[in-house]
Specification:
Helices cover 43% and strands 14% of the residues. The strands form three sheets. It has a seven-stranded mixed sheet, sandwiched between helices. A three-stranded antiparallel sheet has the order 7-6-10, with no helix packed on it. A two-stranded antiparallel ribbon has the order 11-12. Helix 1 packs antiparallel against helix 8, helix 2 runs parallel beside helix 8 and helix 3 packs across helix 4. By secondary structure, it is an alpha/beta fold. The two termini are 29 Å apart. The longest helix has 33 residues. It is globular, with a radius of gyration of 21 Å.
Length: 379
């Protein structure tokens, strides 16, 4: 059993993927070929915004977006404490300070109440200028934008939606990667929509922002290749990756998201008696980048992980260290007790195999082995 079985996906989409790769090789348009523009158009249409700017990876997408807002030293941006390092790294890379915010214990996403508390605290201290909120659509579930967007508007903050894991999720029928003033995603292979290497994309409705981002992804390009009007970077999505992503996007839309939701429902039905299963209300649809359970303690998590490994069931811990405890941020300091939920989650979460091609018998096998573990511990 694979944690995320990309081989099965490839076998299902082999004809379309191989054809797309061969077309790129035959054309020799390996950089900025027509498939990149076609992918950008289809992604923008799916998300529901006017502009999609493909780029080299999801981290570049975040950093480029913050640069578009001229985030700099003396500024700060609010970031969930329970997330992948890049969400906060991009803020620090621009010279600003990430302010960590604890998360909701059931959705794993930024807690809106704690966000407003953090904003008020920064304003009272008066040492930093609040500029942005970096929301994260963790494990496939959009953040609570019904609550977060009004808070950001109240305090005049931009919202950068980190949809690296959230692509395909929905809130009230509106798709992830459409909620931020700028939104981003990642095409890392294990993501809901992944390529065969690194890749990313940025979404916005603002024409000037889109023009700026298209410029800085290619060395600050102006009217043509050797007209450099600003300092930029080299962050292009190559044509081969775009050709791979196009049939994957079509499959994601036609059936893959439905399949992961079916798998998640089967997991939940089988496991709710034994562990804490993911939970969110009817406003949301998840794209299930991960199916993450919670158990009672770190020791039980470790024992369960070993138990499943004996049956060749792969599991992962996303994430073992909260942002405020990362060594790279040790100079920021922290307030004791401010991150209770994140600290607990890092000790008790466990992600199970999840992908669109997971068979019901495999799900049932995982459920059976988890039940066996808990029944054994009760004897």
């Amino acid at each position: 059993m694979q944690f995320r079985d990309l081989n099965r996906q490839y076998e299902a989409l082999k004809a379309e993927i191989d054809k797309g790769i061969q077309e790129v090789i035959s054309s020799s348009a390996f950089i900025s070929g027509r498939q990149v523009e076609a992918l950008e158009e289809e992604l923008a249409q799916y998300v529901g915004l006017r502009h999609c700017i493909a780029c080299g990876n999801g981290t570049d997408a975040l950093s480029m977006s913050l640069r578009a807002w001229d985030l700099k030293a003396g500024d700060c941006a609010f970031v969930p404490d329970f997330t992948f390092f890049a969400s906060a790294e991009a803020v620090a890379f621009e010279g600003a300070i990430p302010i960590f915010v604890d998360v909701d214990q059931r959705t794993f996403n930024m807690d809106p109440v704690k966000l407003e508390d953090a904003i008020r605290k920064v304003l009272v201290e008066g040492k930093l200028v609040p500029r942005a909120v970096v929301t994260v659509d963790l494990f496939g579930l959009p953040a609570d934008y019904d609550a977060i967007l009004p808070i950001a508007e109240k305090y005049g903050l931009k919202v950068l939606e980190d949809g690296a894991q959230g692509f395909g999720g929905e809130l009230r029928g509106r798709r992830a990667c459409s909620f931020g003033d700028i939104s981003t995603t990642s095409f890392f292979p294990a993501k809901p929509l992944g390529c065969y290497g690194d890749g990313g994309a940025i979404f916005t409705d603002d024409d000037d922002t889109a023009d700026y981002l298209r410029s800085i992804r290619v060395h600050g390009k102006g009217a043509y290749k050797y007209d450099n009007v600003r300092i930029g970077r080299n962050s292009r999505l190559d044509t081969l990756q775009a050709a791979i992503l196009l049939p994957k996007l079509h499959a994601f839309i036609s059936h893959e998201r439905d399949e992961v939701n079916h798998a998640a429902a089967r997991y939940t039905e089988g496991l709710r008696e034994w562990v804490i299963t993911p939970c969110f209300d009817e406003r949301f649809i998840s794209s299930w980048a991960q199916y993450t359970i919670q158990v009672e303690s770190e020791q039980i998590r470790n024992d369960l992980q070993r138990h499943l490994k004996l049956s060749c069931i792969p599991t992962m811990v996303y994430y073992p260290i909260p942002m405020h405890q990362q060594k790279a941020f040790s100079d920021l300091g922290k307030t004791e007790g401010s991150y209770e939920v994140s600290e607990r989650l890092c000790k008790t979460v466990l992600a199970l195999p999840m992908h669109p091609y997971l068979e019901e018998a495999e799900i049932d096998f995982v459920v059976e082995k988890i039940r066996d573990f808990y029944e054994g511990t009760r004897i």
